[in-house]
């Protein structure tokens, strides 16, 4: 049996996850820690610490490590292996590949988490039979990964599929986490749905309806979460249903733009907002997408992979690195 192994790393807004994988892509052991944002240099040290600890626990020599794949939300400079003002981590430039290459004397590759997820979908998930595949996450933010003609799109800096920053509202009513207006993520992502609901209700006369959303409005939407909107909609509240329908229309514009740009056979969808409300998110998209794209509409379904898809994509990338070394 080969002694070699790889690290897959998933950097999110909340957690740093590290896994040791065998050469076949099976996770041997994994661990996670809350991300330490006390300094931009500390994230790579945290990955090193978790990685060395995992090696100890399963009796592997760090010297036998044959590659590290790191997936993170962008934006990033892939060639320099660093994050650049990541929208959900409050740090400026975060160098990752350089310090880890030095510590472990191995190749390190940094990829976007959406790119990582589509890679996992293609290797282990619903995309195994497809050459043209898009993965979209509707989560805290909105992100994506794209495979066209069996070719993974990466881009000059690794940001080829930042679909959440497609402009879907030319009136630019809402502001995105990136600072620009009118972006898809500013309307339909988990962190921005409360703002969308608040804006939508500005024109509603309180006397005109009897809805729990108007109670939320009175409380200035304190503690209001996206799940509250979907719960009210599932309970049959008409106002909540109308807003969910409008979110669906905006999502359909996003999915239609993706369809125009990449002509996929399949779009798989993940992320907490979609996974917790599959019908309320996907049905309006399926219904409205033809209003906005002239291309043949792809199959649209929830990803069968769990939240580890990003980690599996990072492992797949690390294994490609280690194969190239042989
Ligand atoms: Zn944006």
Question: Can you walk through the features of this model?
Answer:
With 326 residues, the protein is α/β, with parallel strands linked by helices. The chain has two domains: 5-111 and 308-325, 2-Layer Sandwich (Nucleotidyltransferase, domain 5); 126-302, Nucleotidyltransferase, domain 5. Helix content is 38%, strand content 21%. It has helices at residues 42-57, 97-104, 113-124, 185-188, 193-201, 212-218, 226-234, 238-262, 272-276, 278-288, 309-325; strands at residues 5-11, 15-21, 27-34, 65-72, 76-77, 82-84, 93-95, 108-112, 133-138, 142-148, 151-152, 266-270, 299-302. The strands form three sheets. It has a five-stranded mixed sheet. A hairpin with a 4-residue loop joins strand 5 and strand 6. Helix 1 packs parallel to helix 2 (97-104), helix 7 (226-234) crosses helix 8 and helix 8 crosses helix 10 (278-288). The mean pLDDT is 93. Bound molecules: zinc ion. Residues 165, 176, 178, 180, 183, 185 line the site of zinc ion. Zinc ion is lined by residues 165, 176, 178, 180, 183, 185.
- Separation, N- and C-terminal Cα atoms: 16 Å
Kindly state the percentage of residues in helix.
25-40%
Question: Which ligands, by name, code or SMILES, are bound?
Answer: zinc ion
CATH topology of the largest domain: Nucleotidyltransferase, domain 5
Q: State which percent range the strand residues make up.
A: 15-25%
Q: Domains counted in the coordinates: how many?
A: 2
CATH architecture of the largest domain: 2-Layer Sandwich
Mind describing the biggest β-sheet? 5 strands, mixed
Overall geometric form: globular
Tally the helices: 11
Order of the strands making up the biggest sheet: 3-2-1-4-8
**CATH domain class of the largest domain:** Alpha Beta
What's the order of the H and E elements? EEEHEEEEHEHEEEHHHHHEHHEH
What is the strand tally?
Answer: 13
Structural class assignment: alpha/beta
Point out poorly predicted stretches: none
Q: What's the CATH H-level superfamily name of the largest domain? A: ATPase, nucleotide binding domain
Mean pLDDT: 93
């Amino acid at each position: 049996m080969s002694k070699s192994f790889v690290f897959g790393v998933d950097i999110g807004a909340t957690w740093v996850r590290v896994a040791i994988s065998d050469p076949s892509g099976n996770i041997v052991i994994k661990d996670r820690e809350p991300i330490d944002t006390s300094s931009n240099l500390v994230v790579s040290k945290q990955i090193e610490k978790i990685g060395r600890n995992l090696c100890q626990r399963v009796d592997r020599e760090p010297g036998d490590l044959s590659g590290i794949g790191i997936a993170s939300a962008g934006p990033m400079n892939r060639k320099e292996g660093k994050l650049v003002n990541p929208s959900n981590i409050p740090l400026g430039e975060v160098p990752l590949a350089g310090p880890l290459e030095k510590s472990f004397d191995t190749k390190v590759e940094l990829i976007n988490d959406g790119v990582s997820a589509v890679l996992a979908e293609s290797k282990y998930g619903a995309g195994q039979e497809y050459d043209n595949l898009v993965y979209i996450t509707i989560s805290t933010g909105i992100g994506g990964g794209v495979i066209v003609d069996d070719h993974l799109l990466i881009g000059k800096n690794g940001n080829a599929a930042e679909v959440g920053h497609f402009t879907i509202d030319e009136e630019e009513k809402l502001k995105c986490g990136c600072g620009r207006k009118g972006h898809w993520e500013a309307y339909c992502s988990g962190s921005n749905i409360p703002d969308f609901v608040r804006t939508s209700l500005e024109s509603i006369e309180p006397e005109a309806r009897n809805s729990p959303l108007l109670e939320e409005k009175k409380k200035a939407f304190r503690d209001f979460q996206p799940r509250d909107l979907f719960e009210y909609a599932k309970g049959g509240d008409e106002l909540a249903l109308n807003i969910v329908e409008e979110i669906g229309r905006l999502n359909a514009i996003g999915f239609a733009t993706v369809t125009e740009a990449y002509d996929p056979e399949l779009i798989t969808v993940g992320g907490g907002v979609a996974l917790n409300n599959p019908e309320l998110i996907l049905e309006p998209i399926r219904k409205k997408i033809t209003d906005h794209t002239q291309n043949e509409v792809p199959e649209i379904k929830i990803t069968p992979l769990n939240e580890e898809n990003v980690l599996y994509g990072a492992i797949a990338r690390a294994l490609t690195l280690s194969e190239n070394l042989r």
